[in-house]
Write a structure and sequence with these properties.
Elements lengths: L5 H4 L2 E6 L4 H13 L4 E5 L8 H7 L3 H6 L1 E3 L2 H4 L5 E6 L11 H9 L4 E5 L8 H4 L4 E4 L11 H15 L14 H17 L9 H14 L3 H17 L11 H6 L6 H16 L1
Parallel strand pairs: 1-2, 1-5, 2-3, 4-5, 4-6
Helix pairs in contact: 2-3, 2-8, 6-8, 9-11
């Protein structure tokens, strides 16, 4: 059996979303140990991830359960991840799929990648999927598509070492963590609603595609900062900032958090020249 090397395994995070059975949690802990993945996280479990049943099934891998972290929701569980991948057997229209090779390129380049697995009975819901930047499809028979939770984790982790390239992957410095991208998308969604770009009755019909677009872009921290500046400018232009409608320039300057975009760009250029010198 191929194992992920220590460096790569340390950057992979397995996240179980609302698992219903303690035995499955224990079995997944054992699978993680088999492949050298040390970071197992559980979201809103319906069973005790550290209880006797889970520990019995985990067998010699109980140390993984000792380290397991429990979260109330998916966003908290993946907040520090740079890329969030949802494991699925479905081929949904509009979803962005990643290859196992691409996942290993990201991990090999030093990125923290969280892989989400949904509940045994339903898989990832629409809300869970909105936390994902892309998806990793586990191909199964159409006659019997669903996998046991631990089997799905084993198939996914087992495919990753075989997909690994010898190269270190792309040079994409300082990818923004999920919490920063979530902040950007939440603020962007609010602005899009305010200016009438999204349908208030069903905003996700369009915004889910925007979300996937940004996930595919693999934004850096700097790029997220630039886009937040753009959103602030749109807020000002649409009269959202501070509740005023098209405030005068003097009023804008008095606000520390809302500045004209050309001032932000000018200051950024000055900082860049200073660092180059």
């Amino acid at each position: 059996m191929d194992r992920l090397d220590g460096t790569c395994a340390g950057r992979l995070v397995v996240v179980l979303v609302r698992p219903a059975r303690a035995g499955n949690i224990g079995a997944v802990a054992r699978v993680c140990d088999n492949f050298g993945v040390r970071d197992l996280r559980v979201v809103a479990p319906e069973a005790d991830p550290r209880g006797d049943e889970a520990r019995t099934i985990a067998y010699h891998s109980q140390a993984v359960l000792d380290r397991v972290r429990v979260f109330e929701n998916v966003d908290e569980a993946v907040a520090d991840a740079e890329i969030v991948v949802g494991a699925t057997v479905r081929r949904s229209a509009g979803s962005v799929f990643a290859s196992g090779r691409r996942v290993m390129e990201l991990v090999g380049a030093g990125r923290t990648v969280a892989v989400l697995f949904g509940p045994e009975s339903t898989g990832l819901t629409g809300a869970d999927r909105r936390a994902c930047d892309r998806f990793l499809r586990v191909p199964t028979s159409a006659a019997c598509p669903s996998l046991n939770l631990s089997h799905a984790v084993a198939v996914t982790l087992g495919a990753l070492p075989a997909s690994r390239m010898k190269s270190g992957g792309p040079d994409r410095a300082d990818l923004a963590p999920a919490r920063a991208r979530r902040k950007l998308l939440d603020r962007m969604k609010g602005v899009f609603l305010e200016i009438g770009y999204l349908n208030r009755q069903n905003p996700n019909a369009v915004f889910d595609e925007v979300r996937l677009l940004f996930g595919r872009a693999e934004l850096t921290t700097r790029e997220v900062s630039l886009l937040l500046g753009l959103i602030r400018q749109i807020e000002w232009a649409s009269g959202r900032a501070g509740g005023a409608v098209n405030p005068r320039p003097a009023e804008i300057r008095r606000r520390r958090d809302v500045r004209p975009m050309h001032k932000i760009a000018s200051r950024s250029a000055g900082l860049q020249r200073g660092s180059d010198g």
